[in-house]
Amino acid sequence: MKILFVNPYIYDFTAYDLWLRPVGLLYIAAVVRRFTGCEIFWLDALDRFQEGAGVKSGKSGRGKYYREIVKKPEIYEQTPRYYARYGIPVETFREKIEKLPEMDMIVLTTLMTYWIEGVQFTLNILVNRFPDAKIVVGGVIPSLIPREKIEEYISADFYVSGYGEKKILEIIEREGGKIYPYPDFSHIDNIPFPAFELLTNRRTLPLLTSRGCPYHCAYCASGILNKKFVERSVEKILEEIYDMHETFGTEEVVIFDDAFLVNRRKRFFRVFAEVSQKLKLRFHTPNGLHPGEIDEETAEILFKSGFETLRLSFESIKDDILSRSSNKVTVEKMMRAVENLEKAGYKRGDIGVYLLFGYPGQGLADIEQSLRFVKELGVSPHLALFSPVPGTVDFNNLQHSGVLTTPTDLYETNKIYYLYNKPGLSREEIKYIKDLSIEISADVTRKPEKP
To answer: Which of 93, 168, 284, 320 could bridge across to 309 with cysteines, CB 3.0–4.6 Å?
Structure first.
């Protein structure tokens, strides 16, 4: 049996590769390679490092995607931004699939609910090329959206909700593929390392040390996608880091955890105290760290281990927004975290802070006050545009209040569309906040160090 794993195109107003890697699909590919007799193939429309990608890619592992401006869906007509397809040139994609043999199965992942048009576009090309292949769609969309609703947007033979390691083997066996004995994947350490050999750029690789999050923020779907918070063993994490470095020559590692520093003495301390002594790697945390977990010792290990890109999840200075963030951070905790990081050796201007923008009930003064607070701290703001994620408390409240339509329209979950159409902010106010954020960021990053 021949199986093609696919990471689809993005259709959106904006997209930037902040070390975005299809780690879930890589785990599934590794399971199929290890526990079946199937021959696997790989195609990533978002891989900027492959031949014919249409963009120049530097060594940092992040950067702009090749894009082509496309017609907006009708719902987005009044949103004052260009709408585009992000990913390798379509001609390159078609050339690559033409060189492939006939496939028995195509496994395609999904990420953002509002990237549905990219899924549709990618599947249309694949189905025309491989009309007899069984289509398996997994990832975020089938995990958050009921099957009857998904079928209004995309057609597949199988929809995989939640973790797919066991489910993909069951599907393959059902379709006549050869399956070997496999372990209980509910124990996270039994899952093989992701199939990083399939990636073009292995200098920068993703790492998961846990799945899920113990917090239950009103706007976040982590608790829906991951029914419980589970942590990998220290031994397995270290084994994977060493394997990355020795097998692929990996120099930069991107942490994909939702709750990286939770239970930090059990996992983070033990892993990275050793890593800091044995390897010289650079680590990045684009998903955000919980400031309340950063005491002096944690900050010191972060610095000594080579954590270069730090993003802290502060969200807002407003109390009611912080309470909807599970009270995992307070103004005092934020100030203390920055002080500890500075004491460990970081420059304040190099510390990034996520602030929610466009959040329900958030007024112009609220976000402006949060930006001013961040400026006083001397750290760099990053606006995190609110996206209403199906199944979350905030999404359900917005539907009940009539702000979002019922039944769910996946296009309404787009963060840019939501910002310009739902929170009640004018275009001038939106521009003012964006400009203020850029101004503060430029100001704090050029500030001289404190004596």
So the answer is: 284
